[in-house]
Every structure is written in C-alpha cells, then in structure tokens.
Amino acid sequence: MKKILVLISALCVTASGLLFVASAQNDMTPEERAAMAVDQRKALFKTLRFNLIPIASMAQGAPFDAAVAERNARRVAAIASMIPEVLAQDTRDFDAETTALDSIWENMDDFTAKSQALEDNANAFADAASGGDFATAMGAFRAFGGSCGNCHDTYRVDTD
Ligand code: HEC
Predict the structure, then answer these.
(1) Contact 99, 156 (CB under 8 A)
(2) What is the Cα Rg of the chain in Å?
(3) Distance between CA atoms of 150 and 12, rounded to whole angstroms?
C-alpha cells in the first residue's frame, strides 16, 4: 500500500511537471517559440546523423554488423516520420539561426514526400540488412543515404 502511495505521488509530481512545461510554452514570446522549434528540429536531424554514421562507416569498410545496421535504419525510419511535424512551425518570419530554406513552407507536400522517401528507403535498407548479407544490404544503401542529400539539395542552405 505504501509503495502504491509513493508511486501515485511520484506520478502526480511528474504530471504537474509536464503541466508546468506546457504552461511555460504558453507564456513564451513568438520569438522564443520559433527558437525552440529550430532547436527541436536541429536535435532531430542530429539524431538522424547519429544513427546513420555507423551504417555509413560499414559502407566504407568498417566491419558489417547486420543487427546494428537494421536497428539504426529502423530508428532513422521512425525519426523520419517526425520531420514534417518538427517543421510544421513556420519560422520564416523570425531571425532564427537556421539553414532551413523558406521554400519548405511553400512546398510542404513535396517536403513531406522527401521525408517519406527517407522513411521508405530506410525501411527497405533495414529489410535488406536483416538477412545478414553485406552485399544485399549495400545494394539498398545508396537510395537510403541519398535520401538525406536529396532533401538538403532542395530545402537547406548549401553548407557542403
Ligand atoms: C525532408 C527533408 C530532409 C531530410 C530527408 C533530411 N534532412 Fe537533414 N536537414 C533538413 C533541413 C531543412 C535542415 C535544416 C534545419 C535547420 O537549420 O533549421 C537539416 C539539417 C540537418 C543537419 C544539421 C542540424 C544542425 O544542427 O544544424 C544534419 C546533421 C542533418 N540534417 C542530417 C540529416 C541526415 C543524416 C539525414 C538522412 C538520414 C537527413 N538530414 C535527412 C532537411 C532534411
């Protein structure tokens, strides 16, 4: 019984903490909200890169680990499905530190299609890697890895 009470009070603390975060968001200025949206999407893209790096290393000669390759590609697919959500907030009118091009918000359908292409190609790669054969996996790698640049070429300031 005591344990249950402790658990319930812990849950209440967590819930009130979340409510605090939600109400803090309401109190933010539009500039602060835009800065937060930019932070959030950059964090998402960094997490994509974090998951892609081990796979790209395998493509370049690091030992092939099919389980890691499949796992990370499935993560990329899941995260890719969030790209349109984190870009839903239009930050064009704000002086944010961003490499996102304004054209994203003029072409949301195409931008979403490019996110979907990454998701599909990541899953196709994961399927190919799941068999454990390096050559089969790598046959699906070009389309997968290319999906990142394919969007960057159109919707991101050229930083390369
Ligand atoms: C549908 C479009 C799209 C796809 C697909 C995409 N990106 Fe991006 N990426 C962007 C945009 C837009 C930005 C600019 C974000 C900003 O500066 O606000 C970005 C920025 C980044 C950044 C820089 C983040 C920062 O801290 O400034 C990295 C790293 C990145 N992407 C990696 C990847 C990787 C790796 C993939 C593929 C697994 C990928 N992206 C796929 C659109 C995309």
Answers:
(1) yes
(2) 20
(3) 45
- How many Cβ atoms from other residues are within 10 Å of residue 122's Cβ? 29
Q: For the segment 72-114, what is each residue's pLDDT rounded down to a tens digit? A: 999 999 999 999 999 999 999 999 999 999 999 999 999 999 9
Distance 106 CA to ligand 1 centre (A): 18
pLDDT tens digits along 32-44: 999 999 999 999 9
**Ligand 1: centre distance to CA 45 (Å):** 5
Closest ligand 1 atom to residue 111 Cα is: 1
CB 115 within 8 A of CB 81: yes
pLDDT of 1 above 60: no
Nearest CA to ligand 1 atom 26: 42
Burial of 92 (0-12, 13-18, 19+ CB in 10 A): middle
Mutate to test the pocket of ligand 1, among 152, 155, 160 (most ligand atoms within 8 A of CB): 152
**Which residues lie closer than 8 Å to 25 by C-beta, 6 or more apart?**
33, 36
